[in-house]
Write a structure and sequence with these properties.
Keywords: Signal. The chain has about 130 residues and is mainly β. It has 1 helix and 8 strands. The strands form 2 sheets. A 4-stranded antiparallel beta sheet has the order 2-1-8-7, with no helix packed on it. The protein has a 4-stranded antiparallel beta sheet with strand order 3-4-5-6, with no helix packed on it. A hairpin with a 6-residue loop joins strand 5 and strand 6.
């Protein structure tokens, strides 16, 4: 009986725990060079190390990330970004490689035609933040 109770407690505590992994927070700001309009989208994804995840962000973008653990807290993220605002995926950036230390943030700018994209990425190892 004691073992059965312990097993039940382990199962319940497993389901009560938040999901763990690499949390990648990112935001995308987009503007057209001759316009004052800016579009901003932000999201967080939870992924394992050495895993690929692809998500749609607010219906505006598709972001694909592959994480690779290099050593201890150092990771490599490979990021691809597609813009969906014209109805069909338009690849803005393909397979950008970023070498980061978990906890570090980075920001870069992309330009395609008259659109400018400011991409910010930060990383932390832990639980997926609540929305």
């Amino acid at each position: 009986m004691k073992y059965l109770s312990l097993l039940a407690l382990c199962i319940v505590s497993h389901f009560a725990m938040a999901e763990q992994g690499l949390v990648v927070g990112f935001s995308i700001e987009e503007y057209v060079t001759d316009s004052q309009d800016t579009t901003s989208s932000t999201s967080n994804i939870l992924m394992g190390l050495n895993e690929t995840v692809s998500i749609e962000v607010e219906g505006d973008y598709v972001v694909t990330m592959t994480s690779k653990q290099l050593q201890a807290e150092n990771i490599q993220l490979t990021v691809s970004l597609s813009d969906l605002s014209n109805g069909a995926p338009n690849v803005v950036d393909r397979n950008r490689t970023l070498n980061l230390t978990v906890g570090q943030a980075t920001r870069y700018q992309l330009t395609q035609a008259d659109h400018v994209y400011l991409v910010s990425i930060n990383t932390v190892y832990g639980e997926l933040p609540a929305h």
